[in-house]
Automatic annotation (TrEMBL):
InterPro entries: TPR-like_helical_dom_sf, TPR_rpt, Ycf3. TPR repeats lie at residues 20-53, 54-87, 122-155. It comes from the Bacteria. Keywords: Repeat, Signal, TPR repeat. Pfam families: TPR_16, TPR_8. This is Tetratricopeptide repeat-containing protein. Residues 1-21 form the signal peptide. It comes from Belliella pelovolcani. PROSITE patterns: PROKAR_LIPOPROTEIN (PS51257), TPR (PS50005).
Length: 200
């Protein structure tokens, strides 16, 4: 009987401890509700006691990014990557962030890191292609868009940008329109305007 009371006391203590204070999940709830400032505060509370918590660093960076504070987001993403050097999601977020900052060399660097990790998703190849495209390396960009499409046949954005690349480099217009039409079919909205402009 005494043993059962001790177990019950331990379970109550664990429940009480987990219910008190901010957790990374609190930040996630605020983030999902679009309350990015509150999410940042919740992640700050987690990081006050666990400064190397990759999830909290990464998610706080995402909240900063949503608020348009790309410099603070960059700091958090880099800190998260320093604590988990094979985290593909963080690498992809850094690549995307550098695209937004028009730092295409850094965008390429982090996309390239992500592609090198075994099991990298189609998005890694797509972000690498976007950076190469922006840097004017159209042949390599074409290969990476194609790799992304090969991995995910329903990647409308990759079809769209590959089609635009084909148009810009005067590669077969019919083939470019096939890609743009596929992007429209896959509900990538930006493709509708391109379809009307180039493929009618």
């Amino acid at each position: 009987m005494n043993y059962q009371i001790k177990i019950l006391a331990v379970l109550i203590a664990i429940f009480t401890f987990s219910a008190c204070g901010e957790t990374s999940n609190d930040g996630d709830v605020y983030y999902a509700a679009g309350q990015y400032q509150e999410a940042i505060k919740a992640y700050d509370n987690v990081l006050a006691t666990k400064p190397k918590n990759v999830k909290a660093l990464y998610n706080r960076g995402r909240a900063y990014e949503e608020l348009g504070d790309l410099d603070q987001a960059e700091k958090d993403f880099i800190a998260a990557l320093e604590n988990d050097t094979k985290n593909i999601q963080v690498m992809l977020s850094l690549s995307n962030l550098y695209q937004k900052k028009k730092n295409h060399n850094s965008a390429l660097l982090y996309a390239d890191y992500a592609v090198e990790v075994p099991g990298a998703p189609a998005m890694a190849y797509f972000l690498k292609a976007r950076a190469l495209h922006q840097l004017g390396n159209t042949d390599e960009a074409y290969k990476e868009y194609s790799a992304a499409i090969k991995m995910d046949k329903e990647f409308g954005q990759a079809y769209f940008y590959r089609g635009i690349l084909k148009l810009a480099t005067n590669k077969r217009k019919s083939s470019a329109c096939e890609d743009i039409n596929m992007a429209v079919k896959l509900n990538f909205e930006a493709a509708i305007e391109a379809q009307e402009k180039y493929c009618k």
